[in-house]
Amino acid sequence: MAEQLTFPAESAAVLEPRLPPKLELQDATRSRPFVTLTFATSLDSSLSLAPGVRTRLSGPGSKAMTHYLRTRHAAILVGVSTVLADDPALNCRIAGTSHQPRPIVVDANLRWTPRRSDKVFEVCRNGAGLAPFILIGADASNLPAASVELLHEHGGKYIRVPSARSEVTGRLRFSWDDILAALQAENLTSVMVEGGGQIINSLLDPAYHELIDSVIVTIAPTWLGQGGVVVSPERVTDAAGVPLPVARLSHVSWHPFGDDVVLCGTLRE
Ligand SMILES: NC(=O)C1=CN([C@@H]2O[C@H](COP(=O)(O)OP(=O)(O)OC[C@H]3O[C@@H](n4cnc5c(N)ncnc54)[C@H](O)[C@@H]3O)[C@@H](O)[C@H]2O)C=CC1
Ligand SMILES: Nc1nc(O)c(N)c(N[C@@H]2O[C@H](COP(=O)(O)O)[C@@H](O)[C@H]2O)n1
């Protein structure tokens, strides 16, 4: 029996100012989804011990909070390396929940071959989650027929997104404007961006701060040590090349959940 989490109403209340309107009240006429950037980090700003190593950071209280957030968002977005590393369920396991978020996997370069045995499809078949929408490059071709069929059978699909080839890596990249436009087109009016490191660091680019409505970070009292997957966005400098802070949260509040503390704030005034 999959774990069933509970999240006390009084704890939910302290998060309320940082959450999108309740799902049934969300405004589909907005021009873009409500975006919550949320993740769990160590004291040395790591998401995991190493790329591909799923690492437990959250304690039971903050883990339940993350799953409560999943009851309040229409979608949950992760990068493909998170899927390849964690085989995540990307569902909500709050006891008695009637809502499941739509998993969104950013996979511009078709690195993931979905399999029936993947946990995200298993929970979907058990009625405890939804099948993923996989964001791929607009010109992607030769989609594996078996993958298309597996997604269709479970209610998921591939979604083509305008992309540009990175001059640095040669790989296809999406702009966050186009990622959010694709979600809006699916009437997904809110999304929690959960990671991993590359996804979070790309969204923390100052060019995208106006797209982020809320930031909710779980900080665990753990140092993971060097070599982890680190949240540290690309450096920003002034005209003279002097480094500047990339981002600072405002409207900050801190909430203890067991041994962890949850930091809430916003990147917009
Ligand atoms: N502690 C936490 O809250 C979380 C931890 N994790 C951990 O993070 C690690 C995975 O993080 P990363 O290796 O950084 O991978 P990632 O999950 O950020 O995925 C990176 C991949 O996503 C795609 N991608 C990212 N940004 C894109 C863009 N703008 N356009 C197109 N494609 C884009 C690219 O294919 C890139 O290789 C895993 O070890 C996982 O356990 C993942 C999520 C949350
Ligand atoms: N909030 C949080 N705390 C941790 O300690 C974590 N390791 C993560 N990881 C994220 O949650 C995904 C797992 O989701 P499921 O529980 O399998 O639905 C994992 O892939 C990361 O996105 N998050």
From TrEMBL:
Keyword hit for Kinase: no
EC class of the enzyme, as a word: oxidoreductase
Pfam families, alphabetized: RibD_C
Keywords, ordered alphabetically: NADP, Oxidoreductase, Riboflavin biosynthesis
E.C. number(s) listed in UniProt: 1.1.1.302
Family membership: Belongs to the HTP reductase family.
UniProt GO molecular function: 5-amino-6-(5-phosphoribosylamino)uracil reductase activity
InterPro entries documented for this protein: DHFR-like_dom_sf, RibDG_C, Riboflavin_Biosynth_HTPR
Protein name: 2,5-diamino-6-ribosylamino-4(3H)-pyrimidinone 5'-phosphate reductase
Domain of life of the source: Eukaryota
Catalytic activity of the protein: 2,5-diamino-6-(1-D-ribitylamino)pyrimidin-4(3H)-one 5'-phosphate + NADP(+) = 2,5-diamino-6-(1-D-ribosylamino)pyrimidin-4(3H)-one 5'-phosphate + NADPH + H(+); 2,5-diamino-6-(1-D-ribitylamino)pyrimidin-4(3H)-one 5'-phosphate + NAD(+) = 2,5-diamino-6-(1-D-ribosylamino)pyrimidin-4(3H)-one 5'-phosphate + NADH + H(+)
PANTHER family according to UniProt: 2,5-DIAMINO-6-RIBOSYLAMINO-4(3H)-PYRIMIDINONE 5'-PHOSPHATE REDUCTASE, DIHYDROFOLATE REDUCTASE FAMILY PROTEIN (AFU_ORTHOLOGUE AFUA_8G06820)
SUPFAM superfamilies for the chain: Dihydrofolate reductase-like
Organism: Trichoderma parareesei (Filamentous fungus)
Domain Bacterial bifunctional deaminase-reductase C-terminal, residue spans: 33-263
An individual GO BP term: riboflavin biosynthetic process
Pathway: Cofactor biosynthesis; riboflavin biosynthesis
Function: Catalyzes an early step in riboflavin biosynthesis, the NADPH-dependent reduction of the ribose side chain of 2,5-diamino-6-ribosylamino-4(3H)-pyrimidinone 5'-phosphate, yielding 2,5-diamino-6-ribitylamino-4(3H)-pyrimidinone 5'-phosphate.
Statement: the UniProt record of this protein carries the keyword Lyase: no
